[in-house]
Design a protein that fits this description.
Number of strands of chain A: 9
Largest interface: A-D, 41 and 41 residues
Oligomer: homotetramer
Radius of gyration of chain A: 18 Å
Distance between the termini of chain A: 49 Å
CATH superfamily of one domain in chain A: Class I glutamine amidotransferase (GATase) domain
Structural class of chain A: alpha/beta
Strand order of the largest sheet of chain A: 2-1-3-4-9-8-7-5-6
CATH architecture of one domain in chain A: 3-Layer(aba) Sandwich
Helix content of chain A: 10-25%
Order of helices and strands of chain A: EHHHEHEHEHEEEEEH
Amino acid sequence: MADAIRVTVWNEGRHEKQLDACKEIYPQGMHAVIADFLNAEPDIEARTATLDEPEHGLTDQVLAETDVLTWWGHMAHGEVQDEIVDKVHQRVLDGMGLLCFHSAHFSKIFRKVTGTSCSLKWREIGEKERLWVVQPGHPIVRGIGEYIELPHTEMYGEFFDVPEPDDLIFISWFAGGEVFRSGVCYYRGCGKVFYFRPGHETFPIFKNPQIQKVILNTVRWAAQPGADFKPKVANVEPLEQL
Amino acid sequence: MADAIRVTVWNEGRHEKQLDACKEIYPQGMHAVIADFLNAEPDIEARTATLDEPEHGLTDQVLAETDVLTWWGHMAHGEVQDEIVDKVHQRVLDGMGLLCFHSAHFSKIFRKVTGTSCSLKWREIGEKERLWVVQPGHPIVRGIGEYIELPHTEMYGEFFDVPEPDDLIFISWFAGGEVFRSGVCYYRGCGKVFYFRPGHETFPIFKNPQIQKVILNTVRWAAQPGADFKPKVANVEPLEQL
Amino acid sequence: MADAIRVTVWNEGRHEKQLDACKEIYPQGMHAVIADFLNAEPDIEARTATLDEPEHGLTDQVLAETDVLTWWGHMAHGEVQDEIVDKVHQRVLDGMGLLCFHSAHFSKIFRKVTGTSCSLKWREIGEKERLWVVQPGHPIVRGIGEYIELPHTEMYGEFFDVPEPDDLIFISWFAGGEVFRSGVCYYRGCGKVFYFRPGHETFPIFKNPQIQKVILNTVRWAAQPGADFKPKVANVEPLEQL
Amino acid sequence: MADAIRVTVWNEGRHEKQLDACKEIYPQGMHAVIADFLNAEPDIEARTATLDEPEHGLTDQVLAETDVLTWWGHMAHGEVQDEIVDKVHQRVLDGMGLLCFHSAHFSKIFRKVTGTSCSLKWREIGEKERLWVVQPGHPIVRGIGEYIELPHTEMYGEFFDVPEPDDLIFISWFAGGEVFRSGVCYYRGCGKVFYFRPGHETFPIFKNPQIQKVILNTVRWAAQPGADFKPKVANVEPLEQL
């Protein structure tokens, strides 16, 4: 059998310590819940890493052994060291997958990958969201129906300052009157990047079976085990006689 | 001064004869209203053409003298002759702009240009629509704010079976719970195509100043006066000595 | 084990009968060579169909049982019945993969899918071609290096009148001075379409191991076994209370 | 008459001082030649700025008064202050156009905008280049024929590590056997970015009339006089009653 896909689930991990509403839903942290449902799959091996570990848990070896990295952050984006961000970025260019959740739109790594401010509108009143599928043949939405409905979420609204996505997968409808590009793919170097809007820390989003299905699909789509793309960059000899 | 942009406003023109609600709003036809506000601009010269004229008003000469063609149709798509559709299509490839409104998503010419079924969901209860701008630097939305609000419209919902747009300009929010890609650009050959969702026959959409602004912007974006692109297609001689 | 991917290899099949140079390389037809290397894979079951069979070998049942259809045609595009083309098109929208080779750029099905003329420049002097990979992380080029070199091919040159590809995979260099977008992906409905330039009838292209590798990769990328996408298209009830 | 488009032509300006071959062609610097042909147009007002001026000549006021910034750099990318790069980036998001030439593929601002390494192959033997137009309806190539031929240039070859372009305009053919995506557009925030491959310092590229035509077209395409896009980014009130 093929080698398992190696996923590293990265989490800032602060809200779980500081916010009762979050601690209650995710007593072991969001990363534990995500890693658990990933590890329930026979073809996936997930581990976790968090901000407060040395090198944020993302040593050279961990990164080298990661096929897909998932990222959750919010209140401490600024504490992530630039040097680590640069290493993660290089690994994406070399072929590692990257999956950024929710408030990670403002993470250093996602802004570095997009080249934009990634700003957006927001509102936190627990309104209804409906994520409509607009590219039904994409591997990320295999087995998802026409839409995913979340009864209570934080709203994110346009204008979302990101580049026009390479693939636009989901568009969200919010009860309060806004829309949002909620699932967007970017290709950078040899790597695949997906931003997925859901994932607020005080709604039990990561326990939702459809959300889990999207994450599993994304991990399998983004993984390129063994990928280590090093394009020839050099003063090259002509291939033709001149 | 530069020559004016020559627009031909095409209309099926049946609802205005058969439907009181439409006749009331557009006694001279939607095409008359559209041509009027276009002709109020110093750099635009608009004329009209309708289904029931000989050759649907789209003779070879009219097409040759048209920089941008706008299209409205609904109940009689099937009556448009294939031969005329082919001529319009060829003119688009040669550089003519094409702007399809509302129910023209199902017109022969738009389906020919997209290569898809262009099917969608719909509901006609006069609910609220809000068209959010998602590409703020695009010429089509110059001077439009963050969104356009229409108090009463027909709903169109995803999945809208069109190719991923070359430029996605508007995403609509509907009160009833759906979203829709409401302003989408396609480049075909040398020509520019825009599909714009608004334009229902019994709501006074074409009299809305913001809608008119979008149409004016689109006409100026799509016009390539003098465009008559004929790429060399041949058994060509090598450019290099072999 | 998962069900095999069902491929139907379609061939016009005329050159093999009429042209000695073609007959010599492909005595059983190009379709036989293609089906053979596909059938050597444990996860693929390929059959063939040709123009001169009843319904061109593409009955409703064959189409319903096809996950990926490959298409080769050249001198007899016009003989393919429109009714069959419409059925193939519908199957693509429903999720069947489509892989068009070489001169199939002018096939009815590819022009229907693209919405353009698909015209191009050409020259048949057996010059060198080099297909450069420009999207190294794409599944279609997994295991292919930086480029594929073909010592002798027909030249196809820009301007290639197709829509801007959803994914641009290969760009060809030709010794005579031209370039060409040689590997282009389009998403239509739920289906994936790939146009691949190589495949001339009198050069043994389909016996080239790198070309075979690309075709295998494409079949696995385009296959969505069980896909039968029927989006709800209807006068729908509101999802929200209004 | 409409206000003129305000262009700032930025140049590193080192080769002109240190390299005889460059000094000979551009005794006043490349920026002077570029500004001169821009200023010959009635609708454009160009000024220059260089690395060795205070704040690299890009003060807040200069940036605020710039509709389109052109950028040439090579040997001293690292000397451009990050703070200035951040200001230029913000202005692009707010709507300023950016045109990067040749070796500016490795400039801090272009790498920030793309989110990739922007690495490529290169060779400096003065071989022939032919830039083929692959999007003939784009404003950037209005009046340019099928291709631009440069008899002697430095070669840049794929893989060019940039995101799939929002618009791909030119593909280059090189005598030595490579191809390159030589004219690529990116939309970021409200701003338009164009990377244009030509512009080597020791070939008289900026004096070539077709190259000048492309630059003029690009300036007019990228300019959005008065653009100062500040999307509402906030904790917003619901637009609908909940």
